[in-house]
Amino acid sequence: MKPAFNRRNFLKSSSAAVAAASGAGLAVGLAAPAAAQAARQAPFASAGRAADLPKAKGPRLVVVGGGTSGLTVAKYAKKEYPAFDVVLVERRDMYSSCFTSNLWYADIINLAYLADHSFLDAAVNNDYVYFQATALGLDRDSQTLVTDQGDIRYDFLVVAPGIAYDWSKIGVDDVATQTALRQAYPGGFLSPTEHVTIRRKIREFEGGVFVQTVPSGNYRCLPAPYERACMIASVIKKNKLKGKVVVLDANPEITIKAEGFHAAFDELYKDIIDWRPDSAVTGVDVQGKVIHTAFDDIAFDDAIIYPNVRASTLIEQFGLVAPPTRSNQHEADIDIRFYNYADDMRVYVTGDARRHPYSKSANTSNTEAHYVARVLAARAQDKEVAWTSPQTLCYSMVSADPQEAIYVDTYYGYDTEQDAITGFADTQLFQDRNEDNAAAYLEWGRGLYRDMFKA
Amino acid sequence: MDRREFARCCAGCALFSSLGARAADVVDYPRTRLVVAPGAALKAADVPADQALVFAYPYAGVPCYLIRLADRAAKPRPLRSPDEGDYTTPAGVGPGGALVAFIAICTHQLSYPTPRVSHLRYAPEGSELAGDAARIVCCTHGSVFDPAAGGERVSGPAPAPLLPVRLQYDAEADTLTATGTVADKFLARFFAAYKGDLIERYGAGAYRRPVGDETAVQPLTAYSRRVTTC
Fold first, then answer.
1. CATH superfamily of this structure's domain A168-308
2. Which residue, A91, A272, A276, A56, is CA-closest to A192?
3. pLDDT at residue A11, rounded to an integer
4. Does the A14-162+312-380 domain belong in CATH 3.50.50.60?
5. Plot region of B151 (φ>0 → left; ψ -120 to 50 → alpha; else → beta)
6. What residues are paired with B8 via a beta bridge?
């Protein structure tokens, strides 16, 4: 499935509907979410005991997921409405960010930059509880979240579980092959352990063909596969290897900041990066190390296979998934402006599991969460707030030595009549790579960490 | 009442009192003369118009910008900070009311100038991001502030204005003294966010000591090895 048009042109045309960018068949916000959505909801099963938590001192806000969205919501909901008793449920005991992880592959940053941030400190600094547990089920009637550490009653629930991979859209349907890909050729957009594997692959690459695939649809972090190609290419250049990066792109054009990336590919990595448009992966021979596309078979020495993206399976498990008419990526059936699920004013979904056509990026999730925190604070006091757009500010490093970056800074519009997100607004594109942007990029990442972990 | 509640109550009382009789006042801090070198006072006439001068105030680890506005006098202006509540910015001082000063820490995600790099700068000629001339821009996330309007946010994601530093001008000697600011809780947050870095740069405790009788100014481009433009 290919996007219907060239995204570069699209980005310039702020009047175009953003919805189309996330793939054919996705209609956004055409109607109010259906009241009840019974399909595929897991049966509610209580843990049989209450979670070990202090007694709530105010309306309890439970946030599921300690990524960019969840951490930001937990902090700012408490700031906006100090009466909230906030509990952040996160299964990890160690944070490491997905955003900026590409920079580690070329040693622009180290692992501490990504991971030297504590859930405990975030909770203490911002007066909430970090509860390390895995969310298992949801009963909206009794307002109960089930975790492996016990049940938690909520007054308000925010579900921010992020994404999952969808290998079926790259022609890999059997679980055995999916598992092999997940382990041997991880996409690098889900978990820190993928980043560790990818860094090892790049450091240990001795030449030949290194494939980076780019999926179709509204995948997480549009520029990241291209940025990663630049980082791999810079390592190849530095190590003086006879090798190249083959970028198999499902899309007809680079999906964002195309001019800046094309300039980098042509001027910095002319004989190293081989970018191939309209090259959607249709299958993978894991043993033979061959990737199939509609027109080609590409043998590789190593690869990063980025499958299509969908919402975390937790959205389905909780019975919150939108019908295909409103999301073709199994995203949550939430109100396009206020994020509540269907007509349940107690349950919200934020971050990359949203059905919005927003760019699935950290800056989008962070700024969206600031807004949703205000929505929650208002609703806890029987008030409403006016909709405001998230900001998608997205840097890409295209050169590692010297460090040079490009960026896009954009907002979104909302159409009252259609109840839909209508397009980009106030877009600024800086596609001439330079060192100032690179320095600002590193500070941008630090700013996000501060915003999530510090007071 | 536990300690946290007590602290909250105090914060509440402080906020309440700041909205009462002393509303809109800049808080007095120890007076500090701006100098170019120990004992050598900065002459207001020597404040350049092409970039900000950096000085530490009211604590050793807090960078501030002294700015000469080209053609717009800064008038007092009521503003609000989520950290500090309501306040009124001080007027510009010196000939034409053209000299203003701010805490040089972006109120969005606390970017500030370090000896290595500054993403926050005064752009008298305008910039790609700001458009208009004579704005303060933060390249990290694209926030723009107007120094002639008390540091008010013009555009971008910052939720609050830059916080002002009050200056006193001695017309006879043509010198400047910093006398106060509105940044108590904001600076506590800044110190908490950067404590490890500040200890590395200034030494344990040193970053939060009052600057003393004098504070040295230097151009931003001398203070930071790289000043990003956007």
1. FAD/NAD(P)-binding domain (3.50.50.60)
2. A91
3. 40
4. yes
5. left
6. none
Whose CA is closest to A312, among A93, A64, A71? Answer: A64
Query: pTM for the complete prediction?
Result: 0.86
Answer yes or no: are the C-beta atoms of A318 and A159 closer than 8 Å. Answer: yes
Structure tokens at A118: 């504590």
Q: What is the mean pLDDT of each run of 10 residues along chain A (455 residues)?
A: 37 38 37 41 77 97 98 98 98 97 98 98 98 97 97 98 98 97 97 97 97 98 98 97 98 97 98 98 97 96 98 97 96 98 97 97 98 98 97 97 96 94 89 96 97 97
What is the C-alpha separation between A384 and A350, in angstroms, rounded? Answer: 18
Residue A121's alpha-carbon distances to A74, A274, A351, in angstroms, are 13, 44, 22
How many angstroms away from the CA of B6 is the closest CA of chain A? Answer: 15
**Per-residue tokens: A208:** 């030949």
Q: How far apart are CA B85 and CA B11, in angstroms?
A: 11
* Assigned domain for B7 exists: no
Which residues from chain B sit within 8 angstroms of residue A444, using beta carbons? Answer: 140-141
Question: Could you give the CA distance from residue B147 to residue B91 in angstroms, rounded to a whole number?
Answer: 11
Contacts of B54 (CB under 8 A, 6+ apart): B63, B64, B65, B66, B104, B113, B217, B218, B219, B220, B223, B224
Rounded distance, CA A222 to CA A378, Å? 33
Contact list, B128 vs chain A (CB under 8 Å): 428, 430
Q: Find the CB nearest B109 among A125, A437, A447.
A: A447
Residue B4 lies in a domain: no
Report the DSSP beta bridge partners of residue A159. A64, A349
Examine residue B44 and state whether it is found in any structural domain, yes or no.
yes
- As given in the structure block, the two tokens for residue A180 are 């092999």
